[in-house]
Design a protein that fits this description.
The chain is an alpha/beta fold. It contains 30 helices and 14 strands. Helix 20 packs across helix 21. Helices cover 58% and strands 10% of the residues. An 8-stranded mixed β-sheet has the order 5-14-13-8-12-9-11-10, sandwiched between helices.
């Protein structure tokens, strides 16, 4: 009989609707819990690696490390270039320092070190190289000429060398590790000194090469200057050029004078031309009077006197009066004479003016010709002067270049004097003088006072840390290879169904309360830890019935988990659920315990609950509740017993159980019979809830038959036991038979127990308080 108020009893119920699959992802807490379960493996691996590290520490011969520090200053790209643009050289020559580090690690430098230190005669090196004195002596007499042999030893010598540039400085730390501390210091100092020696030699070689180049260029330039000077002299002589100064140039001066004369003649000719034009346009009598210096005016006055006398006498006498006629004749003669004088004098004046104009024209024309010839000579002289001037500029430029080269040659000679190998190396005690070089020996290596390796501290640290990492790696690998379902998220992702409850592992949850359980079908219990290991073994061997935990231990965490399952099942569907079947993929996944405990918590609501043991092949519910199995479900299905004869009351109030009864030969056919359907229908009428226990779904088809009779099926899986493929197969098999799946239960979930149960520990039982064991016993 249903009671609507039942759904208000649980306020932490999960949703009844199917949940979408979990998104998965990395869960740090879940991962930590998984690794914690494999702590024995991690610890064993770590101890093993630590032991190996200690063994290696004992077996490793002692080695000593000597260190020296050198300073490498950047060398200029050109030996004699100015250093006004160091930033440009730094930017352009970025590969300088990497090149120097490579040179320090080069085989050629190591060969020089061997030769300079005579290492082949040093027993310490022979021992370091893995040779014997006899083997070194057996080499060919021309040992040092055998580059292959020398290179092989050089490579062995480089095995102990380390080059470590100090970041942000010009300092480089050289270190060498050897079994002999004195040998290590000697070798690392040898590397530093040989490198400095080679740097000085390289600089001297560059200086010599540059000096020879300057000598060759100076000689060539002098020859070119001499040739240009001879060409200049020849040009001056052939062109008659004495000087290129315009103030002392005769041609230019003559041309200037001609131009001045020409301009003067032109000006005079224009003036005379104007005077001539004025004479032509002036009256003849005026021109003649000026030309005759007043003669015309005198004659004109005398003629006027006689004409006035004639006019006076004519008034008194007749025209034919002789004196009057004679006077008229005289006047006519004088008038003719005057006109003749006027014509003659005017003509003379005009001809004289025209003559002057023509004379000036001829002078003008003559001067123009002279100027044209002088200008031609000047142009020819200018062309010759340009060539000469070019020669002079070329000579001047080459002389300046010669002066510069001579200056460079002088500097080169000075540098050569300073860095000439013949001068310096003759007085250089090997490795004691680095002046004049861009490489300085900052700190000379000292004989190390203590061994560099092996180090007990490093061995323990590396062994412990490496072992821990290796153990974690093994643990991760095992977790990855483990295909079983372990978490709620995995189960939801695989099934695509909600996980109704995660039943915690009682052996894990009970530790916080001072007692614990074994689990499954072999549960053990012990709460006394004070009696040592024997008491612990006794505790584990003592059986505990976890199937009745909500009845015997109602305040424990596992009981609360089953109550959460009850709530989730009831809310998993909008429709009323009256008949519920429970199955699993395989045997041993806690199906029977889940069903019995679910029946108990449903009965604890005050509802009548009937538990049908439908697992006719391996029934166990009668053992859980201490009932007889002589008559049961099989008896009813075969018609040998009535329904009232197979239903038994249990120690749990309101809970009734119908055991499976005798094992039949055809359990599937019996479950699929009409009497089974009739039994379920009658149970629906008499009980509020009917729970059916079915065999595993993957083993037989009984679960599919039982599921078809129920309103819904709950799947049970044991965490860390059932493979993922079996989970999918179980789901698919039931879905193919149109069985309604309500969700799943994950049993023995360790980390899941913390998620779903430990947060409610304070509401279940006080910490450290032991709950009295129930006095109820299975009937």
């Amino acid at each position: 009989m249903s009671n609507p108020g039942i759904y208000d009893l649980e306020d932490s119920a999960p949703p009844a609707a199917p949940m979408p699959p979990s998104e998965g992802g990395f869960d740090l807490r879940e991962t930590a819990l998984r690794l914690t379960r494999r702590w024995q493996l991690i610890l064993a691996v770590m101890l093993a690696v630590l032991a190996l590290a200690l063994v290696k520490y004992k077996l490793t011969p002692p080695a000593y490390r000597a260190e020296a520090t050198i300073q490498i200053e950047r060398k200029s790209l050109t030996p004699f270039a100015s250093s006004q643009t160091p930033w440009l050289e730094n930017w352009w020559n970025m590969e300088y320092y990497p090149t120097q580090y490579a040179l320090l690690r080069s085989r050629g430098l190591a060969e020089d070190v061997i030769q300079n230190l005579n290492l082949l005669d040093d027993p310490a090196f022979v021992g370091e190289a893995g040779l014997t004195a006899s083997s070194a002596a057996d080499e060919s007499p021309d040992f040092y000429q055998d580059n292959a042999v020398l290179g092989r030893y050089a490579n062995r010598l480089l095995g102990g060398l380390s080059v470590d540039p100090k970041r942000g400085t010009q300092l480089v730390e050289l270190s060498y590790v050897a079994n002999d501390p004195e040998f290590a210091a000697r070798v690392v100092n040898g590397f530093a000194n040989t490198y400095i020696y080679r740097s000085i030699a390289s600089q001297s070689e560059n200086v010599t090469r540059a000096s020879n180049f300057l000598d060759q260029q100076i000689t060539t330039l002098k020859d070119e200057i001499k040739t240009a000077e001879r060409e200049l002299q020849t040009a001056n002589h052939s062109q008659g050029i004495v000087t290129s100064n315009p103030e002392s140039d005769v041609t230019q001066q003559r041309l200037t004078s001609l131009n001045e004369d020409y301009m003067r003649v032109v000006r005079d000719r224009i003036e005379k031309q104007a005077e001539y034009e004025e004479l032509v346009n002036s009256p003849l009598e005026t021109v003649a009077d000026e030309q005759s210096n007043g003669l015309v005016s005198t004659l004109r006055k005398e003629l006027a006197v006689k004409e006035r006398e004639y006019d006076s006498q004519r008034q008194n006498f007749k025209p034919d009066w002789p004196p009057l006629v004679e006077l008229r004749t005289t006047i006519e003669k004088e008038r003719e004479y005057l006109e003749g004088v006027i014509r003659r004098e005017a003509d003379l004046a005009k001809r004289a003016a025209s003559a002057e104009v023509q004379t000036l024209r001829r002078q003008e024309s003559k001067l123009a010709g002279e100027i044209e010839r002088a200008r031609g000579q000047a142009e020819q002289q200018n062309l010759a002067s340009v060539g000469v001037e070019n020669l002079r500029v070329e000579i001047e430029t080459r002389r300046q270049l010669l002066d510069e080269l001579l200056r460079k040659q002088s500097e080169t000679s000075m540098a050569f004097t300073v860095q000439n190998p013949e001068v310096r190396f003759s007085s250089l005690e090997f490795g004691t003088d680095d002046s004049g070089s861009n490489v300085k020996l900052v700190e000379r290596a000292l004989v190390p006072g203590g061994k560099f390796r092996p180090s007990l501290t490093r061995s323990v640290a590396f062994g412990g840390f490496g072992g821990l990492l290796l153990g974690l790696g093994f643990a991760f690998l095992l977790e990855f290879l483990d295909r079983s379902v372990k978490t709620v998220g995995e189960l939801e992702k695989i099934l695509g169904l909600p996980v109704l409850a995660a039943i915690p592992d009682v052996s894990e949850t009970a530790r916080g309360y001072g007692y614990g359980y074994g689990y499954g079908y072999g549960y053990g219990r012990s709460r006394d830890k004070k009696n040592g290991r024997a008491a612990e073994k006794k505790r584990k061997a003592e059986p505990v019935q976890v199937e009745l935990a909500p009845h015997n231990q109602p305040r424990q965490l596992i009981s609360e988990a089953y109550r959460s399952l009850r709530t989730a099942v009831l809310l998993s569907s909008a429709e009323e659920l009256r008949v519920i079947a429970i199955t699993s993929a395989e045997a041993g996944e806690g199906k029977t315990a889940t069903l019995s405990n679910l029946a108990i918590v449903l009965a604890q609501l005050g509802r009548r609950v009937l538990l049908l043991d439908g697992d006719l092949r391996k029934p166990r519910q009668h053992q859980v509740f201490g009932l007889s199995n002589r008559e049961g479900l099989v008896s009813y299905l075969t018609g040998s017993a009535a329904i009232e004869q197979i239903v038994f009351r249990t120690v749990v109030p309101n809970l009734f159980v119908a055991p499976a009864g005798p094992t039949p030969p055809n359990p599937s056919e019996l479950l699929a019979s009409d009497r089974m359907g009739t039994l379920v229908d009658q149970a629906r009428e008499q009980f509020d809830y009917v729970l059916i226990d079915t065999p595993p779904a993957l083993a037989v088809t009984d679960a599919t038959i039982g599921g078809s009779l129920a309103d819904g099926v709950v799947l049970c899986f044991r965490a860390g036991n059932v493979p993922r493929e079996d989970v999918r197969a179980c789901r698919d098999r039931l879905l193919m038979a149109d069985v309604r799946l309500l969700g799943a239960v994950l049993n023995r979930h360790r980390s899941g127990g913390a998620r779903y149960g430990k947060r409610y520990e304070g509401y279940v039982a006080p910490y450290g308080e032991e709950e009295p064991t129930s006095t109820h016993s299975a009937a």
